Amino acid sequence: MTNPRTLPDLSRLTYGQMRNAIIGLDVCVCSALLPDRTYGLYDESKRLILIDRRMTYTRKRCTLVHELVHWLHGDQSCTGVIGNRHERRTRLETARRLISPLEYATAENIWDGKPGLIAGELNVTQEIVEDYRSMLHDTART
Question: How far apart are CA 88 and CA 135, in angstroms?
Answer without folding.
Answer: 10
